[in-house]
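Hi R.,

Here's the chain you asked about this morning:
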Amino acid sequence: MLRALMFILPLALTIYAFIDCLNTPEDEVKHLPKVVWVIIILLFWIVGPIVWLFAGKTRRAAARGGRAGRGGWVAPDDNPEFLKSLGKEEPDDEALLEDWEADLRRREDEMRRREEGGEEKEA
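And the predicted structure, written out as tokens:
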């Protein structure tokens, strides 16, 4: 089991570093071009991925205890602007609902007239 683990761990690390390198935008890659980093990761099995993880990519420090910093995404339940918008009543909703009801009444009246007219023709 230990022998398999000694093979699987470096392989998993290499696959992770390879995919991470491919998904990293060019402007976040440090020291070398992205293509060179891919070659280093694939050629130097254990050392390449470790060097990529520590020196190859610009890492951003998470602000406020792991949350996204300025301009980052914030969950809706943590976003004060979103929470404020929940309490606001939209006046347009009332007008839209009234328009729909009026349209529904008009269509029902038209349908009744057609049905009444159709019954008279049959008789």
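The first helix runs from residue 2 to 23.

Let me know if you need anything else.
M.
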